[in-house]
Amino acid sequence: MAPKNSKSDHQDPEYKARSVALKLLARREHSRQELRLKLMQRKLTPDVIDPVLDDYEQEGWLDDDRFADVYARQRMDLYYGPLRIESELQQRGVFQRPTCMQEVSDQQWAERATEARRRRFGLSTSALEWSDKVRQARFLAQRGFTGEQAERALDARDGLPE
Length: 162
Known about the structure:
Mean pLDDT: 93
Largest sheet: none
Radius of gyration: 22 Å
Helix content: 55-70%
């Protein structure tokens, strides 16, 4: 009987797919699409990759909902807005809105936009000049906040409630 870790195992495409996928998942959560792409970059074929990913989903090791929730929370902690987070998730193959984002009200998103603005530019006690308002609005839009959320953040003043 040959030992289980023989060299032929390491050349087996299914073994390689399982091994690489498990190593990647041990580092951080991945969406199915991300993991599939990384395995394809390692010259593995879809007929080898897909059954492995199916097995890992059944085992609970690969879960797009869990990935979306973890990813969204990390981006929210970095003061990104809902539009940017949803766009980034869609690029990673996740098209449903994570639960943690559904629980955040529009008022809370506006507060996050205000905090992002405060961290980047500070808040003043007086109204912004037009050029500053445009620059800060562009920043908030790039961070993924809606126009309404950005407008509320731009109206916030130091020492005044939003």
